[in-house]
Specification:
Strand order of the largest sheet: 2-1-3-4-5
Helix content: 55-70%
Radius of gyration: 25 Å
Number of strands: 5
Distance between the termini: 22 Å
Length: about 350
């Protein structure tokens, strides 16, 4: 057999296409992660200003003209309202100005991301210093001492996402990449749901009672975990039902390549470039990370939109899986155990 024949035998056209796809996925992975995370800067951070009217208007005008537009300032009536808006995740920080004194107070919430809180503290330390004033920082929603850089919620959600698409991939490719009939699709979705319930519980217990990494309700984190795992798994099953084994790569593209760097984990959303900042909340890692941090540090506030996003992934993924499984399949699309046995006998 010639070298060309050996090459054709070793690398089939289908395998060559898959290798090209993996190569593209590798480059997209590098571009996405480095593009999103290589130069984080605050941009249009929702920010409150508490000060007398004449001072507030002047200060907001100054903050709006800062180079790079790091802040999106707005007037807040008083300290109590500022704290309320921070806990409701409407703003990420606030400056309390007392013209009768030389020290102002900066309110931050490191539970939403320690990097962003530190960036705001550095910014106002510099700005106040230029005015011969000082700033005192108060953390309204502090991250747990066991939650280094506020990353535990992100890694928890990443683990749930990984479990979701790997479980779905195993269920689908164990006897073919596409479900052969509605009954089999329903069984796979049912197994995925059971796996999601157990996976959600396991993750919540590990980060809570076992490691003490995240405060907040274990039951609420359990529910979130079950939804994240099922949403990602259902989306993966749907992609596999549409595109076969290539659907696994598409699931990785959506969840890992696009979803993880845009999730606001390493750097909160206001510090990401516009593209990643825009897509992050619409993908499971971003929606899940937002809800996990809200449960842990913000009394469960502002989670409705993110939960709807996760629910949409779960519902649409399940619907596509069921619809595609009901379509007529060509004979041999998915091998049966008998067919596999016969093929094995022939090969022997």
């Amino acid at each position: 057999m010639s070298l060309v024949d050996e090459l054709k035998s070793a690398v089939t056209p289908r395998a060559a296409l898959l290798v090209v796809g993996v190569f593209a996925l590798q480059l997209l992975f590098i571009a996405s992660y480095v593009g999103a995370l290589h130069d984080p800067k605050p941009k249009d951070v929702p920010f409150g200003v508490v000060a007398p009217p004449q001072v507030s208007a002047q200060l907001i005008g100054q903050l709006e003209k800062l180079p790079g537009e790091p802040l999106d300032p707005r007037t807040v009536t008083d300290e109590a309202e500022a704290r309320k808006q921070i806990l409701n995740r409407e703003i990420d920080g606030a400056l309390l100005v007392n013209p009768a004194r030389t020290t102002d107070t900066l309110l931050v919430a490191s539970g939403g991301g320690t990097v962003l809180a530190s960036a705001m503290e550095s910014l106002f330390t510099r700005l106040e210093g230029a005015q011969q004033r000082t700033v005192r920082t108060v953390d309204v929603a502090p991250a747990s001492p066991q939650d280094f850089d506020g990353l535990s919620a992100f890694y928890l959600v990443v683990g749930w996402c990984v479990g979701g698409y790997i479980c779905a991939a195993v269920l689908a490719i164990s006897s073919g990449a596409r479900p052969a009939n509605p009954e089999r699709a329903i069984i796979r979705l049912g197994v995925l749901a059971l796996y999601a319930i157990l996976g959600g519980l396991g993750g919540a217990v590990i980060v809570g009672p076992i490691l003490g990494a995240l405060p907040g309700s274990v039951a609420a984190l359990w529910g979130l975990g079950a939804l994240v795992v099922f949403a990602v798994g259902a989306a993966t099953l749907a992609l596999q039902s549409l595109f076969g084994i290539v659907g696994i790569g598409l699931a990785i593209l959506l969840i890992v390549v696009a979803g993880n760097p845009s999730a606001g984990g390493a750097f909160p959303l206001p510090m990401l470039p516009p593209f990643w900042k825009a897509i992050g909340p619409a993908l499971p890692p971003g929606a899940g990370t937002w809800v996990a941090r809200s449960i842990a540090y913000f009394r469960g506030n502002d989670v409705t939109v993110s939960l709807l996003v996760l629910s949409a992934w779960a519902v649409v993924g399940s619907a596509i899986t069921l619809v595609m499984s009901s379509l007529k399949r060509r004979p041999g699309t998915e091998p049966t155990p008998e067919g596999l046995g016969a093929a094995g006998g022939a090969a022997a």
